[in-house]
């Protein structure tokens, strides 16, 4: 296995570059896709690329359907009357339409297919938890929203599972913005109260009132390369992340962490560029949180036959222990195993094909691409997508370890004698769970036409 020189290893474990850059990013504030903070963050990352010694630094703009948050409220008319409007209780979900929706509240539990099948949500407001049972496949927020809409619900309430009086946010409109029905996130504590009200014989009604704007905007991708002197080969390995975050928080872990980790990995690689057999391109996408627009833009405007592999890093700041979603590409699992075995480091992996994460823009076309994150003590995203996704929950020592592992993975992926078998579009399509198929179609992201 190709190795980084000792002096680069030493630098990796003493550097403050990644942490300093993360502090800089979170100080930008709101990095919502298409808004001024996202563009400012892109400029700061481009500057960091140059400082890190990456070549060909560039920023590309592309159009997106922007979304601006206003105020939201939830009114309960029975068994007591109360209005919740503080943003620690209730917030709108991006991509939903502005408007008012009233109806009986129906608690569909975790919002699994089975629970929706037995619930009557026609003309009502459906409420689903943000987690799933331990023995159940992961069901994404968008799938629960799609189930609610298809069942005839007039509104959707997304109930957090994490204690702390904070509501979750997250996209529900995707490429069919605005989505069909108003949607809000509520805190675990308010969700528990609403569930108690819904259990009674006199449940009454709830009214959702959402103020927001759906308007055209512009997002950005930032990229640069690391390559050996005189390189002529067209092939390249992509090391990617996304720079945007939801407007309610700093977005420290999701995905400030990924942005700075791939930048730091690029910095380490730049010190040993001539050790590489293949070019490594570092790309930080915009507009991931609202439908992977940056990744789609990049994939649709490039020759993907040149892309050997994509290592997409998202939310990888919770621990030193890597977790990789290989999307059914066995060669990628062997890659990560070779690196973590060499370092005697733990690795968890699964091969579920998931349309969530920027890797999907490549996976859908059969390009080997992995979702790379780190394990945490709890399932799901934890504090992610809430006001509490903040810097104080992260540790610079973790970032040194993870950045070094990512750099090692990139070097190994770029080895001349290592190749990754591509998949056919048909095999990727056939591996998608039925829920993901429905979600992609409802959200306007189904890439396979009538196939």
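^ Assign residues to that structure.
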């Amino acid at each position: 296995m190709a190795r980084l020189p000792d002096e680069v290893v030493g630098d990796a474990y003493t550097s403050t570059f990644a942490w300093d850059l993360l502090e800089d990013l979170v100080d930008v504030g709101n990095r919502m896709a298409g808004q001024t903070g996202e563009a400012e963050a892109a400029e700061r990352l481009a500057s960091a690329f140059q400082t890190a010694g990456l070549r060909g630094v560039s920023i590309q703009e592309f159009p997106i359907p922007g979304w601006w948050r206003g105020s939201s409220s939830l009114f309960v008319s029975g068994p007591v009357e109360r209005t919740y409007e503080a943003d620690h209780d209730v917030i709108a979900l991006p991509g939903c339409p502005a408007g008012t929706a009233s109806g009986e509240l129906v608690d569909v539990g975790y919002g699994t297919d089975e629970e929706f099948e037995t619930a009557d949500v026609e003309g009502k407001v459906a409420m689903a938890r943000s987690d799933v049972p331990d023995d159940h496949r992961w069901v994404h927020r968008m799938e629960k929203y799609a189930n609610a809409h298809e069942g005839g619900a007039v509104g959707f309430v997304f109930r957090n599972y994490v204690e702390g009086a904070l509501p979750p946010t997250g996209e529900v409109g995707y490429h069919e913005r605005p989505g069909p029905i108003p949607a809000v996130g509520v805190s675990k504590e308010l969700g528990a109260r609403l569930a108690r009200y819904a259990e009674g014989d006199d449940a009454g009604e709830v009214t959702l009132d959402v103020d927001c704007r759906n308007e055209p905007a512009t997002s950005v991708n930032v990229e640069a390369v690391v390559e050996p002197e005189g390189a002529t080969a067209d092939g390249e390995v992509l090391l990617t992340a996304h720079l945007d975050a939801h407007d309610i928080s700093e977005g420290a872990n999701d995905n400030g962490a990924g942005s700075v980790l791939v930048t730091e990995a690029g910095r380490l690689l730049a010190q040993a560029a001539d050790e590489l057999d293949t070019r490594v391109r570092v790309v930080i996408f915009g507009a991931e949180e609202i439908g992977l627009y940056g990744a789609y833009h990049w994939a649709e405007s490039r020759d993907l036959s040149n892309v050997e592999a994509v290592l997409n890093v998202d939310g990888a700041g919770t621990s030193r222990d890597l977790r990789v979603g290989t999307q059914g590409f066995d060669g990628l699992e062997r890659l990560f195993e070779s690196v973590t075995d060499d370092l005697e480091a733990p690795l968890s992996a699964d091969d579920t094909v998931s349309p969530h994460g920027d890797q999907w823009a490549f996976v859908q076309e059969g390009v080997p691409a992995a979702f790379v994150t780190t394990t945490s003590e709890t399932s799901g995203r934890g504090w992610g997508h809430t006001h509490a996704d903040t810097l104080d929950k992260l540790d610079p020592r973790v970032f040194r370890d993870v950045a070094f592992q990512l750099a090692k993975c990139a070097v190994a992926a770029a080895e001349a004698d290592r190749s990754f078998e591509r998949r056919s579009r048909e095999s990727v399509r056939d591996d998608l769970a039925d829920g993901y198929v429905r979600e992609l179609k409802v959200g306007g992201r189904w890439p396979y036409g009538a196939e």
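The radius of gyration is 22 Å.
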